[in-house]
Design a protein that fits this description.
Four Helix Bundle (Hemerythrin (Met), subunit A), about 40% helix, 2 domains, single chain, alpha/beta, 8-stranded parallel β-sheet
């Protein structure tokens, strides 16, 4: 089987929760999925079962940790190492104010010695048979000259034996730009990532940032070992139906978006019986039918009724009626019933 990292979905706070990941598995069985970032402090001091809750159907699944204390990160790894995650990833790329206040995320790229200590502590805690420890980084931060600082940073990761490195191909500007601006304003620099792969051919380099089509992702595999896709995969979930055929050479688990929803329904209904509100599940479905007739009414139905205490799957069926009746002449096999 081809490695799952050929195509992975990015960890995204408030988006890639366990309910979205189960839905994503109705579209692709083989892509590597990532959790939202969880801080090491929360793992050590909080409700472990709640923070790491997942369904086995989500595998292969990676856990992303945030933190800057080697002792705390090591303890977090020890607590999660037997929970089924195939990888534990250290967040070295998030530019948010909240993450900066905790002195981790992208801010850590200014302190490679601390990063080294953190990752080595995590590797020791994982042990030889535990999950792989990986790093997700930026090209650099603020006024760093990434042409100089990035190779040196990768050299440090190489020296301590980090095999797989995910590189978001933008710098992070930690003063004056919002997280949204940090996804748009700093220019992408794919050639620098390609250069890193050539300089460190024995390391697995995954490209992240600005990937907005299956074809674009395919093209990148001529230069790097895998791609990580964030907002496009979440906001245009139909694109995930291409992942297994294109990247892994097997058929998708669903023949259409309608079939995917049929697969998702039993999971949702189990959650409803456990007392979870429907909106926790349907908030991930609003992007299903971009540019399809009836999409606005589909979204409106979900947003206006899924929050009601008695809302059940019939809300989704009602929303789908607008798509099914309006899409009969839309020649997209993913919309076929």
């Amino acid at each position: 089987m081809k490695p799952a990292y050929l195509y992975s979905t990015a960890p995204m706070m408030d988006w890639t929760d366990r309910h979205w990941r189960v839905f994503a598995r109705t579209l692709t069985r083989h892509a590597l999925l990532y959790t939202e970032m969880v801080t090491a402090a929360a793992i050590v001091h909080g409700n472990l079962d709640y923070l790491t809750a997942h369904d086995p159907s989500e595998y292969p699944l990676a856990l992303q940790l945030g933190g800057s204390n080697p002792t705390e990160l090591a303890e977090a790894v020890r607590r999660v190492r037997t929970l089924g995650f195939c990888e534990i990833n250290l967040n070295l790329g998030c530019p948010s104010d909240r993450v900066q206040a905790g002195s981790f995320g992208a801010a850590l790229m200014a302190d490679p010695n601390r990063v080294s200590a953190c990752l080595m502590a995590m590797q020791e805690a994982a042990g030889a048979t535990g999950p792989e420890i990986t790093a997700k980084i930026r090209l650099g931060i603020d006024d760093q000259n990434e042409e100089d600082t990035l190779p040196a940073f990768i050299q440090m990761l190489d020296h301590i034996g980090i095999q797989r490195i995910i590189i978001h191909a933008r710098k992070a500007i930690l003063g004056g730009l919002s997280p949204k601006q940090n996804r748009e304003i700093p220019p992408l620099n794919y050639p620098l990532v390609y250069q890193i792969k050539k300089q460190f051919p024995h390391r697995t380099i995954i490209l992240n940032g600005g990937l907005n089509s299956t074809q674009q992702c395919q093209e990148q595999l001529a230069q790097v070992d895998g791609v990580m896709v964030g907002r496009h995969a979440y906001q245009h979930p139909a694109s995930l139906l291409d992942v297994d055929p294109v990247f892994f050479g097997v058929s998708a688990p669903a023949s259409s978006m309608f079939a995917a929803l049929d697969h998702y329904r039993p999971y949702v209904e189990r959650g409803l019986k456990e007392g979870l509100p429907l909106k926790h599940f349907t908030r991930h479905l609003v992007g299903l039918f971009h540019e399809v007739p009836g999409a606005r009414l589909f979204r409106r139905t979900l947003s206006e009724t899924a929050h009601r205490p008695d809302a059940d799957w019939s809300v989704v069926d009602s929303a789908l009626n607008y798509i099914q009746s309006s899409a009969r002449d839309v020649h997209d096999p993913r919309l076929a019933t």
